[in-house]
């Protein structure tokens, strides 16, 4: 979690501007702004901030005003930019200065969608891997060649600086932040409130081929997913999944890729890693036993896949979560 003490509410600021689309801003407010006393953790103190003073027009024909300016924006534990007014225009100097000041102070800096252009303008993405909405990725690379733009992932976690894709991927980023701060149990509870999947890995493709399929094919893939989730601790092959779906293996692989954006076995690995998180967080079970309990054939295989997915080892993840509890 950012620099807030364990008993205080961590502050999170997000930047609004005249002419913005309210979707990403609304998602941030929904996740971090609503009180959640049932979770029994210090929830976020959300501050919607703006450079402009006075009413701002939003897409859809309504206006909004904010109670906080750039000083509050730069002072938060987590600082978010969900969009910029013009991806080809200059980012206002006061916004650039606020981002640099927040980062130098040790704040966690987060962008969503075209907000990556603001972070890049502040120099915070130089030499880093970063992402943005797929339609802006080429322009971001062109305008800021020192940024290593990764155009086809949901988000990139650089610890102190995180960048996310656009539109609905804002929810993936928000839940990822909640998971980092409060663990899988709390993130899953928030996801249930939002009626969204609790976790899509950051490396998942932004674009999933949404081919029109017959309902029976959709049901077949859903059957295979349900079967796999009930048998994670057992060896699982593509043939097993295809059998559960009542489809030929090649047909199953094709439809699974179209519906999920990933391969069946890669999806299984991700589900096993996710299943290990509550065990690492809430039990003293040895890491080796946890890996076996969620279906990894050896401790080394578990550590390899966990580290690739979570950017840290199982033991380090457990220590971090316990330190934050």
Task: Give keywords.
12% strand; 14 helices; two-stranded antiparallel ribbon; 10 strands; alpha/beta
Description:
The chain contains 14 helices and 10 strands. The protein has 325 residues and is of the alpha/beta class. The strands form 3 sheets. The chain has a 6-stranded mixed β-sheet with strand order 2-1-5-6-10-9, with helices on both faces. Strands 3-4 form a two-stranded antiparallel sheet. Residues 208-213 have low confidence and may be disordered.
Mean pLDDT figure: 89
How far do the termini sit from each other? 10 Å
Helical content (DSSP H or I, runs of 4+): 40-55%
Largest sheet: 6 strands, mixed
Q: Which class best fits the helix and strand makeup? A: alpha/beta
* Count of helical stretches: 14
Strand order of the largest sheet: 2-1-5-6-10-9
- Morphology call: globular
Q: How many beta strands in the DSSP annotation? A: 10
Q: How large a portion of the residues is in β-strands, by DSSP E?
A: 5-15%
Pick out the low-confidence regions.
Answer: 208-213
- The radius of gyration computed from the alpha-carbon positions, rounded to a whole number of angstroms, is 21 Å
Helix-strand string = EHEEEHEHEHEHEEEHHHHHHHHH
């Amino acid at each position: 979690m950012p620099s807030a003490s364990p008993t205080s509410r961590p502050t999170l600021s997000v930047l609004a501007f005249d002419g913005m689309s309210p979707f990403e801003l609304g998602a941030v407010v929904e996740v971090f702004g609503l009180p959640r006393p049932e979770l029994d953790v210090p929830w976020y103190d959300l501050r919607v901030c703006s450079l402009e003073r006075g009413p701002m027009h939003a897409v859809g024909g309504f206006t909004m005003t904010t109670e906080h300016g750039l000083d509050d924006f730069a002072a938060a534990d987590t600082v978010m930019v969900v969009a910029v007014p013009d991806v080809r225009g200059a980012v206002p100097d006061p916004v650039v200065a606020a981002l640099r000041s927040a980062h130098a102070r040790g704040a966690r800096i987060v962008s969503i969608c075209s907000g990556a252009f603001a972070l890049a303008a502040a120099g915070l993405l130089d030499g880093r891997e970063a992402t943005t909405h797929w339609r802006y990725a080429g322009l971001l690379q062109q305008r800021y060649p020192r940024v290593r733009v990764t155009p086809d992932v949901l988000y990139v976690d650089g610890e102190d600086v995180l960048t996310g894709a656009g539109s609905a991927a804002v929810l993936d980023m928000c839940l990822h932040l909640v998971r980092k701060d409060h663990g899988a149990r709390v993130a899953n509870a928030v996801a249930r409130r939002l009626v969204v999947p609790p976790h899509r890995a950051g490396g998942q493709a932004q674009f999933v081929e949404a081919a029109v399929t017959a309902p029976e094919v959709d049901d077949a893939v859903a059957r295979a997913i349900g079967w796999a989730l009930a048998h994670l601790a057992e060896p699982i092959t593509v043939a097993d999944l295809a059998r559960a779906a009542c489809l030929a293996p090649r047909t199953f692989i094709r439809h699974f890729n179209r519906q999920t954006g990933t391969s069946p076995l890669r999806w299984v690995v991700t589900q096993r890693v996710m299943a290990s998180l509550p065990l690492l967080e809430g039990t003293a079970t040895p890491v080796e036993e946890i890996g076996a309990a969620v279906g990894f054939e050896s401790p080394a295989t578990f550590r390899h896949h966990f580290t690739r997915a979570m950017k840290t080892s199982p033991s380090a993840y457990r220590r971090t979560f316990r330190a934050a509890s």
